[in-house]
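Two entries, shown back to back:
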Amino acid sequence: MKLVKSLSDVNADETLFPIFYQDNYLAVEREAAPNTETFICFDHQRQIVVPFIVSKNKFLRKAMYIYIPLQIDGQRPDAVCEKNFTEEFHLFLKENKTCDVIFPPYHCCSFMSIPRNCLYYEIGILSVDLTLEEEVVFNKINAENRRQIRKAKKTGVKILWGTQYLDDFYNSYLETVEKKNILPDNYNYFKNLIAKFGDDCIIGIARYGNKTEAAVFDMKDQRYAYSFNSGTALSTAIKGSKKLLVWNEYQQLKNAGIEKYFFGGYRLSLDKSMPLHHVQDFKKNLGCDIEKGYHFIKIINPTRYYLFEAALWCKALVRGRPCSMFNKSGLEIKKST
């Protein structure tokens, strides 16, 4: 195995791969935060590649899969090959002291297999099959949402698309993250994506009168589209505005020849009282299928990892609120042998 900076270093055609493998995307990830590096690990024997990012602080070197491993032609290996690759990849990370822990990728993909000696959990990935007839896609949306979509359209909610609506999106996005009390991505992060990807950045807003009711910022590549971020006004005049926006995006993507839209993760054991449950239920009821798979956390350096966890636990005690490296809500975490 060896680390490279680009698919071109191993003579692979990046147009065959999801956007997360591409040079421009890796550059955006590096520029989004200080002290980060992106790599692609290449297994010459199996002809498999995987992108990942390493963030370094004073104590812990934390890595994250950017996407799942793929063959050099962009196709997915089988589950056995995937497992063998990830186990050797983890050993490679340890031997080369690349990181202390590696976390799973964003909620647009999942693994088919579970490597040995990992913390793992089952997770669903929400997706919409856009190769189906438009009527079939619409009828997979639940009846109440279909009614709201028709009503929003009839009432006069306008759906507008284009990167020129970045400010409208970002203002709506800020309203949402402030309500959830979470840290927002920086405005320049989205601006940088637009600069590097242009029309492959999908910005849509739902407007009623002079007010932006809802907005989305998504990305697409040759075959797929991915939900990145969205926002909803704290108070909306029309209940189905965002649902109409999402439905119109399905139509736009289908007309552009996109095969599948990935709408995020689905935590299978999430309590119904939690806010995140309502978010994923909203997505599921907009016609999504749930593709089950696995995510895992590989602890490379247990001493550093658990000392860092202990420090976070002490910090949580002082602040009086949870403080963790990732949100464990709705996840049944187990240890593989």
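entry 2 starts here
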Amino acid sequence: MSKTELGCQVLQEKGHFADFAHFIRQHGLESDDPELILKLKSILWAVGNIGATDGGLPFLEEEEIIPVILDIAEQSPIPSVRGTCFFVLGLISSTSQGAEILDDYHWEATLSPLGTPTGLCIPVDVEKFMSIPSWDPPSVTDGSDDSHLLPPTTQVELEVITAIQNLGNTVIANAASRSLTKMKSRPEYRPVFSTISTFYRALNTISTQRFRLPVRRYILDLFNIEMDSDVVKSLSECAKSLRAPPSFKHPKSPANRVVNMFGRLGRSRRASESDDEGSDTAENENIVIEKPVITLRPISRIIGFDS
């Protein structure tokens, strides 16, 4: 629209560019809300494309939005927002007038051998654009090197964590992957994949065991959790609350740890029936099994020599 005179007139009458400029000023340094950050990027791209034309550049000058975009490019705590501003400033510098305006703010536009702008603009002070404010990460250790965690409190969480651990075994990894896919589709298992404690246990499993890169991505994709500052704080709290004390003894895990939607694999039908009978088979435990009298081993004789 900004390439034609009629389009610029419609853009002026509708007042959309004023709304864009107000949103950029209000949420330019947003760092918490993913939806606002995504909307900010889309509006920056719209403003950049408007400023890439001779007819649209007066809109940016009227709203004085170019200095705001420069401040976002140098101060935003989100690197992807800074990158968006970098490309937007390159669009603005694609016209001779835009390149002159950015030169006043110490951003130099590159020119072709014929003297026309190439649409690439770089700052004179690169360190100011590339520097990111330092931050103190939350402490997740309490002075001990023991990384053992307390066992899960629910059977559903235990089955999910056990299946995730089984993904590190190449022999039973396919069965564990099928079990996790079925678990995520079941309503009784679905809430587990949204809890921070289970997510922290999965991250601890990834960090303490060897998994291939596709398996690591598969485990992370199982959980419906978006990383933000609140989730990081919750993970830091789980690191302290779920850590097992030195005096805690973990229960011995069964030999067969393959979990599927129908129970543990490897149990025969006869074994499950015997568990259901309970005390009816207790009296057979004292029966001593004797060796058979008749053996099937063939008799070997050496013939041809007289004693």
